[in-house]
Design goal:
There is one protein chain. The chain has 444 residues and is of the alpha/beta class. It has three domains: 3-85, Four Helix Bundle (Hemerythrin (Met), subunit A), CATH 1.20.120.140; 101-285, P-loop containing nucleotide triphosphate hydrolases (Rossmann fold), CATH 3.40.50.300; 299-439, Signal recognition particle, SRP54 subunit, M-domain (434 Repressor (Amino-terminal Domain)), CATH 1.10.260. The protein contains 21 helices and eight strands. The protein has helices spanning 3-17, 24-40, 45-59, 62-65, 70-85, 113-126, 143-154, 167-180, 198-211, 226-238, 256-265, 286-293, 299-309, 312-323, 329-342, 345-350, 368-379, 383-387, 394-404, 408-429, 433-439; strands at 101-106, 131-135, 157-158, 185-189, 215-221, 243-247, 269-273, 281-283. The chain has an eight-stranded mixed sheet with strand order 3-2-4-1-5-6-7-8, sandwiched between helices. It is flat, with a radius of gyration of 25 Å. The chain starts with a helix and ends in a 5-residue tail after the last helix.
Length: 444
Amino acid sequence: MFESLSEKLDGIFKKLKGRGRLDEENIQSALKEIRMALLEADVNFKVVKDFIEEVRVRAVGQEVVDSITPGQQVVKIVHDRLIELMGGGTSQLRFGNRIPAPIMLVGLQGCGKTTTAVKLARLLAAQGKRTYLVSADVYRPAAMEQLRVMGEKIGAGIFAAGEERDPVRICVQAVEEARRQGYEAVIVDTAGRLHIDAAMMDELKRIREIVTPSEILFVADAMTGQEAVNVAKKFDELLGIDGVIMTKMDGDARGGAALSLKAVIGKPIKFVGVGEKIDALEVFHPDRMASRILGMGDIVTLVEKAQATVDEKEARELERKIRKNEFTLEDFRDQLRQIKKMGSLTDILGMIPGLSKVKGLKDVTPDERELVRVGAIIDSMTRAERLNYLLIDGSRRKRIARGSGTSVQDVNRLIKNYIDMRKMMKRMTGKGGLKALKRGNFPF
């Protein structure tokens, strides 16, 4: 997400940082380029106009003129303004005092409401909340069955509507059942339409009035750009929404809708969908997103993902092995499995500060299938071979290749990469290694 915008802004800021001092003419020229970059990213025209004016007022002020590094100061101003544009702080879900707290998902057909309902249930479960799912979509074939099948995979409670076909009565019965079973939240997956119509809005209003949800979240498809903003605005006017869940962010390289929503409708983005997997829903943090847009990475989210998948005791043992140069192919395989749990490689690399600017890595697109191939090769080794790669001679390499359905060249390449990784780890844990990494001087 924001890939094209990030590249353009990076080019603009490189030119600014290359100047010893900045005057109003330099700043105006840069702002003109930033304006074009934002418009090409499909950001709302009025939002862009106000954004540029705010940055201009701050950038031509005394703080930049007197700054030791004026180029960096302008980057900071843009960074701070991007955070404000996307809402300032992180917006939490409100549950209120009711148990269970109903959370109502609304939106057009095809925006991903049903999948998002299950993803949200999983996210709340990870926070320790027992969540109940109910489908109020009696129109789309198999909508209720889809929610049931997906919900069972994550162990969420699911309301069975039986023969009932009144969406309002289904929601009332579901909330009562959730209360009886001691659930803390009820996620209501409502029906969508191809476009806004009076019948749909009337149904949603009746559900809202009788269920009185603690939150009404509009599910927006990021791929539809400014149309998503316009539809969200209409839903807010007719129904009243509390926030937005932006889906398919991983497929939208422009990201204009995410940058426009808060400014246009005054409601925050609370979550973003970043993939098809059931765990690919993240809390939206404006500050972290601004850093990623400007190529600064998102180390906080990366650490949080790692903490959610890595056992602390195992992490300490791994650190000991790396320091003692005892990192084996078995450890390598286990780390690949942990990485796969954290999400897509593209997203993970995008969170590492400065990595996108390393020569040779900028245009590299990680091949997720390579992880599967590497895992198969290591699994085809004996435990003795995984613990001591020096045992793997020519005949063993042929056996491993046959067992993993790969070639001897693939096995050779893996072992070479593993040896290179051990060397890199040794340098990093040596004197000055981590300091060099922090400065961006990668020791490999």
